[in-house]
Amino acid sequence: MPKVARIAALALRTLELISGAIVAGLIGHELRRADKAGVRPAKRMIYAEVVAGLAILLSLLLLLPMTWAFSLWPLDFVMFILWIVAFGLLVDWLPNRSCSSGWNFNPWDDSGANHCQQLKAALAFAFLSAIFWLASGALAAWTLHRTRGATADPATTKRRGFLGRRRV
């Protein structure tokens, strides 16, 4: 594997881990607030928390410098889809929370405006995490395609036609 691809994969996995941890922390804080208030949390929030936890686990596992980590590129695309679904669910849910107020720059304020800013931050990092998983999967697929094509010896490889059939 090319060194540049390994370094890029390591950087993307680290960014996936960081963004997943941020989303897990922000959504976990909102789930704790709901529990303290005695309110049943939205299923969308629980789904986003589960996806964030899964992303943290998988990014930690795939951060290991093993050659098989590149061959799991379909898993990156599955995580991309899971993050896009979580992003869509949170985007659909956020306007119902009356978060159209202005800016609130007081980080110690526990009012609704700060609550909305935390949800918007979780939304942004969920989207960023989806993009990082997509880029990681594309990089791994491209690297595997490139290295498998370079290792094949053209003199011994038989050409096959459409759907792997032999040409006569």
Automatic annotation (TrEMBL):
Q: Is DNA damage among the key words of this record?
A: no
Q: Which InterPro entries does the annotation name?
A: Marvel
Location comes to:
Membrane
Q: Where are the transmembrane segments?
A: 6-27, 47-71, 77-94, 121-144
One GO CC annotation, please?
membrane
Domain MARVEL residues, every copy? 9-136
Could you tell me the superkingdom of the organism this chain comes from?
A: Eukaryota
The keyword Membrane appears for this protein: yes
| Keyword annotations of the record | Membrane, Transmembrane, Transmembrane helix
Protein topology in the membrane: Multi-pass membrane protein
Query: What is this protein identified as?
Result: MARVEL domain-containing protein
Which species does the entry assign this protein to?
Ascobolus immersus RN42
- Tell me the organism's taxonomic lineage: Eukaryota, Fungi, Dikarya, Ascomycota, Pezizomycotina
